[in-house]
Amino acid sequence: MKNFQREVNDHWRVRYQNPGLPHAQQGWVLPPGREEAFDPFILMADDWFKRGTFSDHPHRGFQTITYVIDGRLEHIDNAGGHSVLDAGDVQYMNAGSGARHAEEAYGDDLIHTLQLWLNLPEKLKGSESFYQNVRLEDAPSVSVDGGTVRVYSGDIAGVKGPMDSLVPITMAEISLREGAEYTHVLPENHNAFLYVLAGELEAGEAGTVLAKTDAATLTFREDGEQSRPSELKLRATGRTRLIIYSGVPLRETVVARGPFVMNTEEEIMQAFQDYRSGKFGPPAVK
């Protein structure tokens, strides 16, 4: 039986706002309010910022995956954690029942990041918070004809990424020379999207043209099997770099308000009350 062939389901070019320093520029790769289409993903932001933009703040009920495109990201949490991530590094955070942290540009850097919000199923929203740094050199890189695939999470191109997400996902960065063709393989029941970081390509057998700062969701078989592969054909029409994510939809009610993602309005109100009453602990400062 032929593997399911993925096509571009929807695509759009990211529009940016310039709020002014310290938050120099911001765009929505996955805009808020489309949780059903993006499930299990909630939103993804493309940000340029200096220190003072994302100081001490809380989260509950979901996970974040922060990819550093350029600059240095300083992470501080109120459990005593501290780290500095460089370009190509990724931080995974499970907010679970409650996390309080800061994500700052290091020193005087102007940093460029992608932050993806990944939902937690209801049964895991009360899980313990934790953080995992995935360094560039620890994510395996696979040579393909005309390029490379760097795997941060999931089983891709014969290797396994080091990210240990509570909700299993795949995350890979693909770099292709002009004219290169590559077929990316994903479980057929994974909802997936991609974001073009540089260049231009044709995606799927239909050859949908995507260029820098274009995002696209892909067709998939929601009633398919995790064990069965699906294929996305890619052809680089210029020197191209993209990042692609996939995961199994949760199909649970999503209520997102500010820094919290829960299943009901009552749970959101409780999260705000818990934060105001100090149940998230002290501020995240060095």
TrEMBL record:
Q: Which family does it belong to?
A: Belongs to the pirin family.
- Species whose genome carries this gene: Bhargavaea ullalensis
The residue ranges of the Pirin C-terminal domain are 172-281
Matches recorded under Gene3D superfamilies: Jelly Rolls (2.60.120.10)
- Official protein name in the record: Redox-sensitive bicupin YhaK (Pirin superfamily)
Q: Which InterPro entries match?
A: Pirin, Pirin_C_dom, Pirin_N_dom, RmlC-like_jellyroll, RmlC_Cupin_sf
Q: Which Pfam families match?
A: Pirin, Pirin_C
Per UniProt, residues of the Pirin N-terminal domain are: 51-118
